[in-house]
Design a protein that fits this description.
heterodimer, A: five-stranded mixed beta sheet, B: 39% helix
Chain lengths: 135, 141
């Protein structure tokens, strides 16, 4: 008589731990990150140690080193930018405008924007800075 | 008469496969890790509602005023004298000890870099200046 041993199934490896790790990583990246439109050109914000925490929301105006402009990630001319910002202000009275200017951008490209925004009634204009230089 | 009852064994519940969920989560994780750039950004207020509301009230003729000119090279100048960032902070601290409401006005050149203006604002803020204004000369239309 021939006895055959019952074939054992290979032990299933638990994947619960893997799911946990992946899930925690996913939640981590989703929580600590804030989705924001990036400028279509390189912008390295100026360095300042006394900056305050950046509030969320509002419109972001990027100014490149040579004075090119972008609103919320879309490159546009100065006149188009003014039209778009005026329309945004009309729909949101408390609009916050963040000016993310390259640290080497000349002030003749930056300060007129601040003055113009103040002139049309924007009551919250901030300059974006970074406490640490990029590595 | 004896009856015969046949009972069907309960069917085992089908297990929901976790593999598709793991796939989706891994794809989401890789997406966020690859497409995200993490920047440590702060802000310096340039125009605030409170500033506009309090501007007339804070004009005090008795308070001292310091004018800092910022040349095209980004170097601050006070009364024609070039001053380093460290000396500027010391000077502002001394003035604020004498007159806490000292107003600091910065007149930058249009050719100066943004970093130069931010550095001056940073130094003034660290020194404790609360009345800080940036002046911009505008061509007459």
């Amino acid at each position: 008589m021939k006895l055959t041993r019952r074939r054992q199934d290979p032990p299933s490896e638990t994947i619960i731990a893997l799911i946990d790790v992946v899930f925690f990583l996913l939640v981590f990246f989703m929580l600590i990150g804030r989705m924001d439109a990036t400028a279509p050109f390189d912008v390295a914000p100026p360095i300042a140690q006394s900056g305050r925490d950046m509030p969320a929301g509002g419109a972001t105006v990027a100014v490149s080193q040579d004075g090119a402009l972008a609103l919320d990630g879309i490159a546009m001319t100065r006149s188009a930018l003014e039209t778009a910002l005026a329309a945004m202000l009309a729909s949101d009275d408390g609009l916050r405008v963040r000016i993310n200017a390259h640290r080497d951008a000349e002030l003749r490209h930056v300060l007129p924007l601040v003055g113009w925004a103040e002139g049309i009634g924007v009551r919250d204009v901030v300059l974006v800075v970074t406490p640490t230089p990029e590595p | 008469m004896a009856s015969l009852t046949l009972t069907r064994p309960p069917r085992a519940r089908a297990l929901i496969s976790l593999v598709p969920m793991i796939d989706v989560m891994l794809i989401l994780l890789v997406f966020f890790m690859v497409t995200s750039t993490y920047l440590n950004l702060d802000m310096i207020p340039a125009v605030r509602q409170q500033d506009q509301a309090q501007a007339p009230a804070t004009e005090s003729p008795s308070a001292a005023t310091i004018m800092i000119r910022l040349g095209a090279d980004g170097v601050p100048v006070i009364r024609g004298q070039v001053i380093s960032d460290g000396d500027l902070e010391t000077l502002l601290r001394q003035r604020l000890e004498q007159e806490p409401l000292t107003q600091v006005m910065v007149l930058p050149s249009g050719a100066a870099k943004t970093q130069g203006l931010i550095t001056v604002l940073d130094v003034a803020t660290r020194a404790g200046v609360v009345r800080l204004r940036v002046i911009r000369l505008q061509a007459r239309p």
